[in-house]
Amino acid sequence: MAIEVESLRQSWPRPSAPRPIVIIGAGGIVNDAHLPAYRLASSPVAGLYDIDGGKAAALAAKWNTQAIATLDEAVATEGAVFDLALPPAAHLEVLPKLPRGATVLLQKPMGRDLDEATAILKLCRERELTAAANFQLRFSPMLLAVADALERGWLGRLVDVEVHLNLLTPWHLFPFLKDMKRVEISVHSIHYLDTIRALLGNPTGVHARTLGHPSTDLAQTRTSALFDFAADQRVTFSINHNHDFGEKFQEANLRFEGTDGAAMVKLGVLLNYPKGESDELWITRKGENWTQVPLSGGWFPHAFMGTMSNLQRFAAGEDKLLHTSVEDAWHTMALAEAAFESAAAPATQVRAAP
Length: 354
Prior knowledge:
With 354 residues, the chain is of the alpha/beta class. The protein folds into two domains: 13-137 and 304-324, Rossmann fold; 138-299, Dihydrodipicolinate Reductase, domain 2. 30% of the residues lie in helices and 21% in strands. It is built from nine helices and 13 strands. It has helices at residues 28-40, 53-62, 71-75, 91-94, 114-126, 141-151, 184-200, 302-315, 326-344; strands at residues 21-24, 45-49, 81-84, 103-106, 130-133, 158-166, 205-211, 222-228, 234-240, 251-258, 261-266, 280-285, 291-292. The strands form two sheets. The protein has an eight-stranded mixed beta sheet with strand order 7-8-9-6-10-11-12-13. Strand 1 (21-24), helix 1 and strand 2 form a beta-alpha-beta unit.
């Protein structure tokens, strides 16, 4: 196993002729992930635009690119791929302004709810956009390696998957969340929804609860969920972003157990965010010791290279499948919608003593 794990796939092929990228939006995620990823991938950035011109200018200067003065000028960039690094409410406002037939990457989530996701999907179809959502966790080095191990049969058939987070998230770094009615599932756990769909397909049902915490005025920061797949498959989430009792027992793990082996993923970037720790991947098979897989990078920023590379390669005919296309991403949004509907439904009451 120690020799075999080094052969696991951890990155996505780059486009042979990278197109210039125009970034619309200049928030923290652009500085922390988008621009570092594009620099690592040697992807040309033609410039960036933000409704706050001062913010765009400062970020452009930091990354040695140009700040674009107006949205009209940004969308007129010849041959560009558009990276819409925007809050979900802004997608339907900006998409109609892109050239017909444009290639575009939408920051997740794909709208604030399923109705908006459906409107985005229809708009992309009508305007013939080659469009993908930036559900990038499935493109991270450790999740690409897990998918590869599954394809090779190392784990056998997945029968137990658990996402377990118990940590303190600095929500104040994301001020746009304050007025949103849907927070934790829509902007965070949606990554895990998309990942389990990528590995297991679409579940048939979900049982969920999502709620806030006395320490914050955000709508939700904690989630529990159980997903229905095959009768012998258990898939569950336990998410707590409010563990404010030091770092000793903070965790951010994904566990994948199959009939023949298992894998454990540590999402290091989430621990002491945004400083973070190193991501980790461990794999075992029955009768063998656990082996740590040497990783070529982390979720941030390396996964962001994958979504853009797949989009550009698909647009150029180099990839046959656009993995996070708006067509596929709609199903992730539908799963999130089902989770919120389940969370709003009354629970089965426990019977009182006779």
